[in-house]
Structure formats: structure tokens, C-alpha cells
Design goal:
The structure is a homodimer of 434-residue chains. Chain A contains 12 helices and 15 strands. With 434 residues, chain A is of the alpha+beta class. Chain A folds into 2 domains: 291 residues, L-amino peptidase D-ALA esterase/amidase (4-Layer Sandwich), CATH 3.60.70.12; 124 residues, ArgJ beta chain, C-terminal domain (Ubiquitin-like (UB roll)). In chain A, the strands form 2 sheets. In chain A, strands 1, 2, 3, 4, 5, 6, 7 and 9 form an 8-stranded mixed sheet that branches. In chain A, strand 12 and strand 13 form a beta hairpin. In chain A, helix 3 runs parallel beside helix 4 and helix 8 crosses helix 10. At the A-B interface, helix 9, helix 10, strand 13 and helix 12 of A face helix 9, helix 10, strand 13 and helix 12 of B.
Chain lengths: 434, 434
């Protein structure tokens, strides 16, 4: 039994590529600014502004938690199909802040609208764009239950608006992606380019995550921007069709934040012909590229999971149905025992069996196949007679591990991604606040 | 705001009491033996036998995992209402061992029946009891997927049977409770005595757990014995009525074993008058005492959770309904972020909010109260103005922490128990096999 080295290298290469500095450039219709309001007390950038001078169509997906942050409540009551700006702050989640939190966002929306409108009226800009308070989206991430620092932020709004860069380069994007971080160790960026019809369009994305989801500190935020001209409905459909296999397929510790937010913006600056239907064949390639951006950002979040040393891909195939495959995948992905075994580079397939069993989903043991990478361990429900723990042991030393489970009882497939569970996770999460 | 020290001391005392050496004595109708078959290679006791000379009525509850061990499959096909023996081995789970595993149990059951019958026929015993192979229950705990060591065990069966102690004292019980351990650091025993009608009866229990449930090593096994005369149906009902608030209320890491087994035996040696109905008032006190034994064993398992330093009691009251309360309790109890915060002695109530939110259960934030012990933190959905983090911080240093959540939207109550999540858990589970 030979190891398929090529497969491993592919996985490794994919990861290395992800960690590369991403060469994002300019997207027409967006201005960006990121500065410090000194919320952390150490001068790091912590407030970020995206300004869409001619507006952007958009679609959002928010956390499924029954308790949501005040900024999300604010966003949910906006009725405009076009937004002019997105404001993001870190350090404070604006959750469990009640009236103070909600009113703070109202106040910031008014102040931002005033400052942005003022800027547009100045001679050197001269667009005379008018920004209304209900054309601004808000994202927050940080500690739950602390008074929202509205004054500190407000004092910096003029500087933030004054710092808007109309022409971006990779440094502007990295500055923004860095300013939205909390416990993240690296900024997360991804981009793709493709054609819609004859026109070149861009898809850029930034995200933050890390302790997926350390609710007193981290949250999953992701913002994707395109210069293609797509309606809010098309944007929404595209998110819905691709989120389950990307941002919803990842888990670091099974916890969910009160602040999770994913928004997809279309500046419409590229005049692709009107696309009215999600099934329009001109969207096929665009959707593929969008999926790449979403998966790329998702995997960057996992790779940067608190204390994570290894990426773990859990591939369930031929389960009874899609939901069953998904449940088995997450039963494995959320098991502390599997995640600690991966950290210990232990090919502990017994724990995989345990996690399949505890999922409660139908299993026909006699049909079950389990592989670590390409290495067959369980074949038709029995330990593969050619199983050589030493070879599998070697595989476990790679920085990206695949667990492949073939249920062979149906048509349901699902891939989940997670990271290993190391002592550093415990360190980060026991020592954070104190 | 003063700390209610008495409450804390109560919790502390309860724990200390639990850790005391339990003074179990003799139960009529049971003989016990525990010796080594050297399955670990270090000579520790690893096989245990309970023999009921005149049989025992019994009821069992097994793991809900879709993949179960071969010994459980064997037990499930027994049709007898009376068993004569219970055999337990540690080190090998007899799971994913297929035919070899199942046939091994068949072989052991025959051999045990022969040896036990032979013993009963000897002059010094002279009961002439006949034990049939289908009158023996089997429990296993240990590594999944390794060939079941049937020969090693079989060779020791004569010694095991020869070592049966007909009169027990606490040392016999502790020896048995120690022999069923895997990664447990202490043997787990509990007992109660009470009356049924005019007759004194005893309820004795032993258990093992630890890495609740580290499937390659640990499993929850619990065996409860009474000399009261109760039918299998009554025993079953008593287990069903009490398991949800005891063994099913505890979690160390949310994982579930393929081998979990709880069996309740009645030797019937005390001639209490016939009890035919679970609602018989003579059972009220007995059921309370049984609940104590089950809860006591459950909490000992939690306190001995892998790497655990603190016991965590999560008390959800007035949720929409019972199921909702249970789901919220486990959402908190299984959150790695909460368990690491407890390890760090961090009164991180934001993570409690997160876990309530992610449970998906109905919440009316404005009615929500959260207390750590008696210390009010959230009152009617807002941070209690008298909240003093320093005092709560002191509370977090205790070895037993209560998180009290009042939902105030219904009648559903549930209490779950767990332990903190320390670096030692990661150590134990990354280093175990390698």
C-alpha cells in the first residue's frame, strides 16, 4: 500500500497558497479606511469604513443565535435595497448592551451620514453624494456586555472619513482586514477574477474568525465585494447556495457567536448585461469563483483557529441523505476527543467510529469504509488487513489531515472542516479576560 | 451584596462527602471477585465477576450510539428474566471486533457457566446451582477495534470463580470498583439504606467513567444492586424515571461511548411484600435513595473527568418546557469556551449568554436572570447594577461552581453537571495511545 504523496502535497500546497499575501487591488466604486479609536488601549486599528459612493446592492446572512448584537438588530430594520457604507468596530460586541448599544448605533449612523455627505460636497471630491443614516450597515465583534464605547468612536469618525482611500491596493485591503481582527493572528483576504459575458469582474473578500466562535472576543465576520452588477435577490441566492459548503461547513469549537455576519456587496460598476435569474448560464463561472473566495476565507479562519496547528477535512460520502451526512461530519468535527487525537498525531480511528455512532444517524457497519487521506483503515466494516499503523502515523504528521468516511447506504455527501484541539486553545481561552 | 457562604460550603461539603471512602458492606445474594488477567501488562485487576447464587432480576439501559459493542449485542439477545452472573473486563472495548468479538463472549459465557456450576456442586459450596450461558451479562470497556483477548481471559476464569467472596466488606467492593476503572483516578462507590414497608433494604452501586466518554479507553459503566425484591418491570421503570436527572445529566466532553451500560440488579433476598406498581407508596423513599445513589455516582464520574479540577452545576429554570431547559443546559455544559473559562476561574458570563443563544431555544432577553452561585449577574436582561466582578471572581476559585439561569418564560427545569476543561484533558487525550 503506497501513500499517494501527490494528494498530500496538493493539500499542503493549497494551504501554503492560502497563507500567501493576497494581491488584491482596486475595485471600482469602493473607498476604504481603517484607523484606531484606541479601543484596545494599544493604538491598533479597530474601526473600519467601506464607502460606496454610488451605493451598493447587498445581501446579508446573520448568526442563527437567539441572542443577537444590537448592530445586527439595527441592520435588520433597514429597508433600503442600496447601502452607501459599512462600518465595523472591533473590541466591543455591542451585545447585551440594550438601549445604550442600539442608540449608539443610531447616533453613529447619523454622524457618519453627516460626515460622509459633507465630504462628498467638498470641492476636491465634488460628487455631492447624500448618505442617509439608514443607508449604513454596522458590524461589531468583541466583548459581550460591556458599554458600547460610542464617544470614543464618534470622536474618530471625522478622521475615519477623511482617511478614505478611493483607489485601493493590497496594503489598503490588508490594513482593513487587520483592523477587523480580534484574536486572529493573520488578516484574511481572498480574491478571484472572472468574466460575466464579455466583461471582467472581480470578487474580493475579507474575513475574521479565529476562536470560532469565542463570543467574548471573536466572531465570524466576512465581507465580499464585487464590481459586477447583480441584484440583491441574485446576491442573496448566491450566498444561500454557497454558504452551507463554506462558512457553515467550518467549526473550531462548535460554539456560535451572537455577532456572526456575512455580507455580499455589488457596486455594479461593471456594466454586465442584466442578469435576472440565478440559473443564468453567465453566472456559472462567477458562482464557482465566488465559492472559491468563500471557501478560501473559511479555511483561513479554520487554519487560524485558536491554538490550531492542523487543518482537518472531514469528507462523508454516500450517507442516507444530505442532512445525515452533515450530521455525521459535524459529530466528528466537533468531537474534542478526535480533535485532541489529531493534535497528538494519533491515527485514532476508534474515536471516528465513536463519533459516527453518537451522531444517531443510520449506519450499516458492514458497508462502512474509513480512510485517513488515501490510506484505507476500515473496509466493509472490518479493520483492513493491509492496515499499517506506521504508515498512517507518518500521514498524521502532515499539517492537513483528511478523514474520509464512506457510509455506502445512500446519496448524501458533505464535507466539514475543522482544526485540531491543542493546549494553546485552553491557554487562550482560560487566560483571555484575566 | 454579601456572598451566601453557607451555600458554597454546602456544595463543598457535598463534594468532600462524595470523595470519602464509602462504607459498603454485605448484600445478601451476591458474591464478588476481581483479579488480573494481565490485560494491561502491569498486573492490575482487570476482570470482575458478580455471581447471584439464586439469580437476580435485572433491568439495563445501554448506550444510544448507533454502533455498539459485541458484549451489548450479546446481552440484548438474552431472553431470561433472571441472571446468575455479570462479567466485566477492562482494557478492551470489544467494539468493531466483529465475529471474533461476539464469538469470544459466547465462548466465555459457556466457560463461565461451566465453572460456576462446577463450583456450586462442590462440597464446600453445595448449592448445586446450575448456571446457564444465557444467564450471564457482559460489560466491556477499553480500546475499540483491537482483537478481544479471549484466551488471556479464559485462562483466568477458574481463578476468578475460585476467588468469589460470598461475604463482602468495603474492601471487596473497592477492589471490584477499582478493577472496572480505565483512566479513572479513583474507584466510584455509593450506597444508601432505607425501608420498604417494615423491611430494611440496601442499595449499593459502583461505576466507572472518567473521559466521559473517551471511547478508546473510557466508557460509562454503572452497576446497582439491591437486596429488595423488585420485578424487572419495576427496576426498569425506576431506572427510566431517574436516569435523566443523573447519568444522562452529566457530560465531560459531549462524546458518547459505544459501550455505555447501566444495570440494576435485585437479589430479592429481603422478603418485602409484593410490589406490583411503580406508584406503590412504599417505593417513594426507596426511589429517593436510589436517585441519591445514581446522582452520587454520576457526580463522582464528573469530578473524576479527565483533567477536571472543578465541578460545574448548570441549573436552568422556567424555560419554555423541559426539553428546552435540557437543551439550554447542555448547550452550556458542552461549550468548550465555558469549560475553559471555568478552568481559568474567569466569571465569563458573556459565554453563558452565547451558549443560551446558540441553543436555538426561545429566550426573552428582558426576562433573563443569570446567577453564579447566589451572585446575581444578569437581572431582567441587564447587567445587575450591584454586580461586583471581584466578589464573583472569589466565587470562581471554589472547586464547585453553580451557574443558575432563570428563563422566566415557562415551567421547564433541568440541571446538568459537567467539569472544567483543563490542559490536562488535552494531555490525557493527545498522549494516550502514542
Amino acid at each position: 500500500m503506497a501513500i499517494n504523496i501527490k494528494n498530500f502535497l496538493n493539500v499542503k500546497n493549497k494551504l501554503s497558497k492560502m497563507r500567501d499575501f493576497q494581491d488584491l487591488g482596486h475595485i471600482e466604486g469602493i473607498s476604504i479606511s481603517a484607523i484606531t479609536a484606541d479601543l484596545y488601549g494599544d493604538g491598533r486599528d479597530d474601526i473600519t469604513l467601506f464607502y460606496f459612493s454610488e451605493g451598493a446592492k447587498y445581501a446579508s446572512v446573520y448568526t442563527k443565535s437567539k441572542i443577537v448584537s444590537e448592530n445586527i438588530k439595527f441592520n435588520l430594520q433597514l429597508k433600503n435595497k442600496l447601502v452607501k457604507a459599512l462600518f465595523i468596530n472591533t473590541k466591543n460586541a455591542n451585545t447585551f448592551t440594550g438601549k445604550q448599544g442600539f442608540e449608539s448605533i443610531r447616533e453613529l449612523s447619523k454622524y457618519l451620514s453627516k460626515e460622509l455627505t459633507l465630504r462628498a460636497s467638498r470641492a476636491e471630491v465634488g460628487t455631492n453624494d447624500v448618505v442617509k443614516p439608514n443607508q449604513i450597515l454596522f458590524a461589531s465583534t468583541g466583548v459581550i456586555g460591556e458599554t458600547y464605547p460610542v464617544e470614543k468612536i464618534k470622536n474618530k469618525i471625522p478622521d475615519l472619513v477623511a482617511s478614505l482611500k478611493t483607489v485601493q491596493n493590497k496594503y489598503v485591503w490588508v490594513k482593513a482586514a487587520s483592523a477587523i481582527k480580534t484574536t486572529d493572528t493573520i488578516p484574511k483576504l481572498a480574491f478571484e477574477e472572472c468574466k460575466i459575458g464579455e466583461k471582467n469582474v472581480k470578487i474580493y473578500g475579507i474575513a475574521k474568525g479565529s476562536g470560532m466562535i469565542a463570543p467574548n472576543m471573536a466572531t465570524m465576520l466576512a465581507f465580499i465585494f464585487t464590481d459586477a452588477d447583480l441584484s440583491a435577490n441574485i446576491l442573496k441566492s448566491l450566498l444561500k447556495r454557497n454558504i452551507d459548503s463554506t462558512f457553515n461547513a467550518i467549526t473550531v469549537d462548535g460554539d456560535t457567536s451572537t455577532n456572526d455576519m456575512l455580507t455580499f456587496f455589488s457596486t455594479g460598476k461593471v456594466n454586465n448585461s442584466n442578469i435576472e435569474n440565478i440559473l443564468d448560464p453567465r453566472l456559472i463561472n462567477f458562482e464557482k469563483k465566488l465559492h472559491n473566495v468563500m471557501l478560501n476565507l473559511s479555511l483561513q479562519i479554520i487554519k487560524d483557529g485558536e491554538g490550531a496547528k492542523k487543518l482537518l477535512k472531514i469528507n462523508i460520502s454516500k450517507a442516507q441523505n444530505y442532512q445525515s451526512a452533515r450530521k455525521i461530519a459535524f459529530s466528528i468535527a466537533n468531537s474534542p476527543l478526535i480533535k485532541t487525537a489529531i493534535a497528538g498525531e494519533d491515527p485514532n480511528w476508534g474515536r471516528v467510529i465513536m463519533a459516527i455512532g453518537k451522531s444517531g444517524e443510520n449506519v450499516n457497519v458492514k458497508k462502512l469504509n474509513i480512510k485517513f487521506g488515501e490510506l484505507s483503515i476500515i473496509k466493509n466494516g472490518e479493520l483492513n488487513s493491509e492496515y499499517d499503523e506506521k504508515i498512517v502515523q507518518e500521514y498524521m504528521e502532515w499539517d492537513s489531515i483528511e478523514i474520509n468516511v464512506e457510509m455506502n447506504i445512500g446519496e448524501g455527501n458533505y464535507i466539514a472542516y475543522t482544526c485540531d484541539f491543542t493546549k494553546d486553545y485552553i491557554d487562550i481561552n482560560t487566560d483571555y479576560r484575566t
